[in-house]
Amino acid sequence: MKIGVIGGGQLGRMLALAGTPLGMNFAFLDPAPDACAAALGEHLRADYGDQDHLRQLADEVDLVTFEFESVPAETVAFLSQFVPVYPSAEALRIARDRWFEKSMFKDLGIPTPAFADIQSQADLDAAVASIGLPAVLKTRTLGYDGKGQKVLRKPEDIAGTFAELGSVACLLEGFVPFTGEVSLIAVRARDGEKKFYPLVHNTHDSGILKLSVASTDHPLQALAEDYSSRVLKHLDYVGVMAFEFFEVDGGLKANEIAPRVHNSGHWTTEGAECSQFENHLRAVAGLPLGSTAKVGESAMLNFIGVVPPVEKVIAIEDCHLHHYGKAFKSGRKVGHANLRCADMATLQAQIIKVQALIAE
Fold first, then answer.
1. 144 is in an annotated binding site
2. Which residues contact 213 (CB under 8 A, 6 or more apart)?
3. In degrees, to the nearest 5, what angle opens at C-alpha 67 toward C-alphas 233 and 252?
4. Which of 13, 73, 130, 263 could form a disulfide with 93 if both were Cys (CB 3.0 to 4.6 A apart)?
5. Where is the ATP-grasp domain (predicted)?
6. pLDDT at 337
7. Is residue 277 marked as binding?
8. Architecture of domain 114-174
9. Does 25 belong to an annotated binding site?
């Protein structure tokens, strides 16, 4: 089976690494000349809206998926005329727009922070008066890793902020006094079968994920699965979806979904019976889903800007290095380390060792 992937970054690369043992081949459509997934398959270098190359991709593969939601929904809709594409264009359309996404949560009875659609500075002024401060203004599309957003803490922060974010459609969200950030990696097959990985505790810095730790018997696991199931069913979703939540007052408020394999699920490569990458491919290909059970205690630490010396990383016991083969650049995710240990105490000790390398 040959699978087309829109996007050739590290997520596409890890999909190919997971699919190759299953006898799958890959083709990546990505405009970047140095797309890091290109070493693992055919690279069609073209913009995501290039219909000639999209037709070429459709003619060469058995099905198509995508590795990130910056892909236009129109691209997926176009491809779906010629080849099966999972997840669907409708799922992508909603997930890539924060207003559509939050409105869907509200319609499905899933709690969220207070939010408002912002189309102008006047809208922002009115929304702040209603929702209050602090609040976060985010572009409705394309923002990630802390980009395309600004925290408003005091009245002086409001003036000119709409223009500062590009005078594009935005969403204002009330600030949530959360006690933790967690994410749930879910997978849904073509026949509707669903499986869930354990909730993951996430730590961010300046909007970028730094550390994910898989939980054991989290008290909010069932609630997270319920909320995620509502979305998966509503969208008739196929593939892996990540659902990010805030822990608030003993419950959960929805932050956002990602219609793809996700950074906070990277630990599953070594830490689960079947990784999120393999399960995504199983789902879109119509194959049986694999077990999402944990193997030991696991965590993932991102390498931002630079990967520490390889020999130092792999010298840490229980540590597994994933180097993306990307040029080092400030603020860029260039690799990660997965830890898998026998117990939580050992895991915490090994996390400290990797963090020390990152700080060097």
1. yes
2. 200, 201, 298, 299, 347, 351
3. 45
4. 73
5. 102-285
6. 98
7. no
8. 2-Layer Sandwich (3.30)
9. no
Nearest to 179 by CA among 110, 245, 86: 245
Q: What is the pLDDT of residues 206-235, one digit of tens each?
A: 889 999 999 999 999 999 999 999 999 999
Instruction: Return the pLDDT at 206.
Output: 83
Structure tokens at 209: 């994920």
> Is 202 within any annotated ligand binding site?
no
Q: How far apart are CA 192 and CA 177, in angstroms?
A: 35
- Residue located via tokens 């990277």: 266
Residue 174 marked ligand-binding? yes
Q: Return the domain boundaries, the chain.
A: 2-85, 114-174, 180-359
Fold of the CATH domain 2-85: Rossmann fold (3.40.50)
For 314, what's the count of Cα atoms within 13 Å in the CB-facing half-sphere?
A: 6
pLDDT, mean of residues 325-346: 96
pLDDT score recorded for residue 148: 83
| 148 among annotated binding-site residues | yes
Cβ-contact 39, 61 below 8 angstroms: no
Judge whether 98 is annotated as a binding position: yes
250 labeled binding residue: no
Residue 160 annotated as binding? no
- Cα separation, 312 vs 214, in Å, equals 24
305-316 burial, b if ≥16 CB within 10 A, otherwise e?
A: eebbeeeebeeb
Cis, peptide link before residue 134, omega less than 30° from 0: yes
- Asked whether residue 147 is marked as a ligand-binding residue, the answer is yes
Domain 180-359 classification at class level: alpha beta
